[in-house]
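Section: Multi-chain targets

For targets with more than one molecule, the full set of components is provided together so that the structure can be written out for the assembly as a whole rather than chain by chain. Components appear in the order listed by the source. The example entry contains four components.
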Amino acid sequence: MGVTKSDLFSKTQNELAAIAKVLAHPARVAILQYLLKSNTCINGHLVEELGLAQATISQHLKELKNSGIIQGTIEGVSVSYCINPGRWEEIKGIFNTLFESYPTPDPNCGPNC
Amino acid sequence: MGVTKSDLFSKTQNELAAIAKVLAHPARVAILQYLLKSNTCINGHLVEELGLAQATISQHLKELKNSGIIQGTIEGVSVSYCINPGRWEEIKGIFNTLFESYPTPDPNCGPNC
DNA sequence: TTATTATATTGCAATATTACGATTAATCAT
DNA sequence: ATGATTAATCGTAATATTGCAATATAATAA
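Its structure, encoded as tokens over all components, is:
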């Protein structure tokens, strides 16, 4: 079918999957990494930087914005995007919760550990 | 088009996006959470637990296995799946690297911080 | 061997995603 | 107002994903 049966899953599971989906495209990862380095960016810079069409970048920015990871403010004729610190921490926490719920293997531990 | 231009992006970016894509479905998140709780599971249990068809669960397990996050061993007539500890740490590290590269806001800091 | 049980694979329909050209909207400079 | 610049939206084509019934495969039991 191509439609996810989200009613079968918990809110947390759907939320985590939704955030992961936003990160599930290299262009959006690239945009975030660019933002992490440069603090801000505008659509036009990303078009040059990434080599995708203007409309495509705009679409990816929209998805990042919808998820709350980034925010944009009108800066004259262009729009300046930056990371949303609060949401960033939130998402970091969501992933941490998942990854921390599995015990890190202790290399000093014997076979009975 | 519907095809991702992966040649435009770095190996790291494509890798992170690929892992995120595996986590980008609530059924796969649910399977991982089930494994985190129970240590092992078999297809049949998940079919009951999640309410998806056997073929569908099998497909999700295949994707998780392909990404290396889980591994399956034949246990008589069924297959016992568990988390791959090494790969888990690896993936945890990849996400941590991303999330740690943005400074956590310090609440003790004034407006000029 | 023949059932039985459990999982994987195949084939297909429905839906989602990706990418981009064309158009629209909004701001600024003249 | 007019033109230039930038970004968002629309429409569309190509491809990917999701879900399941049906079938195939593999291991064990009788």
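Chain B has one domain: 12-99.
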